[in-house]
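Worked example 2:
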Amino acid sequence: MHTPVMLSLKSFAGGFRALMAGRQTRTQPERLEQLLASMDEKEATRALDDWPSWAHGAQLPPDGRWKTWLFLGGRGAGKTRAGSEWIRARIAAGARRIALIGPTHGDVREVMIAGPSGLRSLGTRAERPVWEATRRRLLWPNGAVAYTFSGEDPDALRGPQFDTAWADEFAAWRHAQSTLDMLRFGLRLGDDPRLMVTTTPRPIPALKRLIAANGTVMTHAGSAANAANLAPGFIDDLREHYGASRLALQELEGRLIDDPEGALWTRAQIDAALAVEAFEPERIVVAVDPPASATGDECGIIVAGAAGRRRDARYVVLADRSLRARPEGWAKRVADAFKSFDADEVIAEANQGGDMVRAVLSAACPGLPVRLVHASRAKRARAEPVAALYTAGKVRHEGRMLQLEDQMCAFGAPDFSGSPDRVDALVWAVSALSQGGLEPRLRWV
């Protein structure tokens, strides 16, 4: 026999799923409020906390005796909420030692723990965990404890042991494979240790191996599956900007798009660049690929350094500061990067109006040392010598730069479309640092 609360929950779940099935409109929040207003406080609280009533299919754990659940999703597909709810369910079922791993410690704290879908935002106040910042751990009232780790430091996972782990944005980890390896060695407590991995897919080797591994089960959702919980027009706006491009398929549809044939760089080369031994650059430049218009298109801004000369030179990509902005906005970003990295000069492409570029940069920072360069050859011809340096193991990436990496690993393919602003800026930076050691040489303006 159903209690009044359970009948209300059933009614609520059916009504909410009906809202989810329809096209998102501005009236949906009002209809949802009407459903909740029909319940008393206790019923409404239960309804809001009844995750299976809210979740779409990809957010719920698959059946069976799997070891790793991989949830591939587009931006805003509800991956963080799914991970947090799975951890809550595991704790309710008896899990007591948990690992939380994100790209950085800051990501774990701000997204997985304190974010609007994070672990400290769900459930009643009496059920929520306490964050101990000095020990980087969460404590639940029932004695469960979660320790935080980052994909930047695999060795931190040597020693600890767990019965449950949640790995978020795995494809953005700096040391994805080695961190996952160390985590698996520590998943050895209890009768049924399990791992959940939530990520927007990028075709890095570690993700491909995870998909193919025995014991991995997978769910998938594009951004549209969670449209009712996103800002009105969010998906339509992004589709208007990116259409059916590889970036849209990856970021919105959550599809794994492999390295295209003919691209100048591969994911393996990017991973290798992350592993190149660190060194102190002797020269640093900020390279700028200005947009063709003044209406807020993307401006490529790359900070890079070099040590040594000619054949012995080594290069490091320090930061990708690219952005969509009007001229005064990207000029300020260039000036800020120049100051924060104590750079030697700014390298700016002059093809889109050299006088304007110099004037805008000078207005943002009077006295900024700017060198203008002119592209006299095709983009691929300019990029090939730089790609060869990656093949030779002479370029280091100081950290993950996801948008730059995605553009690098698509540039040069037959179906590549769009303007490779970040790649252009990268090529200008490394070519300038080579002091003319690369062909074709730059033509200074």
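The first helix runs from residue 4 to 21. The chain has three domains: 4-48, 55-251, 267-444.
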